[in-house]
Design a protein that fits this description.
Number of helices: 9
Strand order of the largest sheet: 3-2-4-5-6-8-9
Largest sheet: 7 strands, mixed
Structural class: alpha/beta
Mean pLDDT: 90
Radius of gyration: 18 Å
Shape: globular
Number of strands: 9
Strand content: 15-25%
Low-confidence stretches: 1-9
Order of helices and strands: EHEHEHEHHEHEHEEHHE
């Protein structure tokens, strides 16, 4: 629906900040994205700036195919980076299972854009509440079915943000999540 929108771009820096809280010794974080994707480019700029302010090296790997992403993930060497950070890129979103499996084997903490990746085994996500998006969208549908014209409906933003953490994954990679982060989590997967 055109009347509902998400402010996900603003969350990029906060995602990196939360990842740093979960992994206090975080020094180098890697991301993979398609450099032809304008959303990913914008998110990379935001992440790069946030990383600079936090004194974290932001390692960007450009990939234009699933094969390049697979090869890039496999090529990560032990100690090369301390975590994986997902940007708003459809290719990496679609390849979340590959990223999750590779990160688990390489014992890399992961920060994803969508909580569905955390449910599948990623470490954490910080994103707009899909439940809230659905609720607001349903209100629009209800109004339209009651006779309102879509062009007459106000645009509403969704401001509810969910922090989701997978403790099972944390245990598998040998990471202890600080209590201060766990207390703020909206959902903890055990």
């Amino acid at each position: 629906l055109t009347g509902v929108y998400e402010r996900s771009t603003d969350l990029t820096g906060k995602r990196l900040e939360i990842l740093k809280e979960m992994v206090p010794k975080l020094r180098r974080v890697v991301t993979f994205y398609d450099p032809r994707n304008s959303v990913a480019i914008e998110h990379s700029k935001l992440a790069r700036e946030a990383a600079r302010q936090m004194k974290i090296q932001f390692v960007e790997r450009h990939v234009v195919s699933v094969e390049e992403l697979q090869a890039g993930m496999r090529a990560l060497r032990a100690g090369e980076v301390d975590a994986f950070f997902q940007l708003g890129d459809p290719m990496t979103s679609n390849q979340a299972p590959l990223i999750i499996d590779t990160a688990r084997v390489k014992r890399l903490p992961t920060m994803f854009v969508n909580q569905s990746s955390v449910i599948k085994g990623g470490l954490a996500s910080y994103s707009v509440s899909r439940h809230e998006v659905g609720r607001v969208s349903a209100k629009y549908v209800q109004r339209i079915l009651a006779g309102a014209k879509p062009k007459d409906l106000p645009v509403e933003g969704v401001n509810k943000i969910d922090l989701v953490i997978n403790l099972k994954t944390a245990k598998q990679i040998g990471l202890t999540i600080p209590q201060s982060v766990l207390y703020r989590a909206d959902k903890v997967i055990k």
